[in-house]
Amino acid sequence: MIKKAVILAGGLGTRISEETSLKPKPMIEIGGRPIIWHIMKIYSNHGINDFIICAGYLGYLIKEYFSNYALHMSDVTFDMSTGQTIVHRAYGEPWKITVIDTGAETMTGGRLRRVREHIGDAPFCMTYGDGLANIDIGALMAFHLAHGAEATVTRVLPPGRFGALELEGDLVTGFQEKPMGDGGWINGGFFVLSPKVLDRIDGDSTIWEREPLEGLARDRQLRAYAHKDFWQPMDTLRDKRHLEELWDRGQAPWKLW
After folding, report:
1. With a threshold of 0.70, does the pTM exceed it?
2. What 3 state SS string does 218-249 have?
3. Which of 36, 79, 118, 172 could be bridged to 84 by S-S, CB 3.0 to 4.6 A?
């Protein structure tokens, strides 16, 4: 049974530097919660509650957030005369969270290799800390377990950058907001992996998307799960604002919990 999810959360996020000068990219908020929280809720909705977070740049902020999470979600009284804290209503998630400092400059493959001892011997999920989707994690895991290869990547159609006109000749009949891209499938994260893949990672300088994934494909050990619905990375401030607008309108497709 697949019980764990690894989240890559250590990169600098240079393309959204307006936000990442003060916090790591996975801590950028959508609807008042860090995007990594949304990712964890996606997994938790499908029974994955054991998380390994590969931290790096400003990783202490991730530790602080989850260290104080239960307190922030509870009703409390602080008695300043006695120093006593009384919790009236506690709310938490059924999560076990391991945050590992994988280095500020470590590449994606190296980060995965550095948490090897926490992964164990069973297949596990892995994704990037900056992408949301209304993906069926249960179906993804079943797909992986059925095909028997070492790795599964979720293939997605990237969202278009601009809205499109719907036309009949030169008559505009409507507008389509950010239609899907040109039909080319891309790596959308949301992997399911055998621990065997870790043997393909040489060290901190290994980029997961290069030697390990290319080797898996060459050895016919990489299968692609097709996700044809909502998927959105948060690469730029425009992406962040788009996700915020969806959340604020109550139309966030990834909110399945």
Report:
1. yes
2. HCCCEEEEEECCCEEECCCHHHHHHHHHHHHC
3. 79
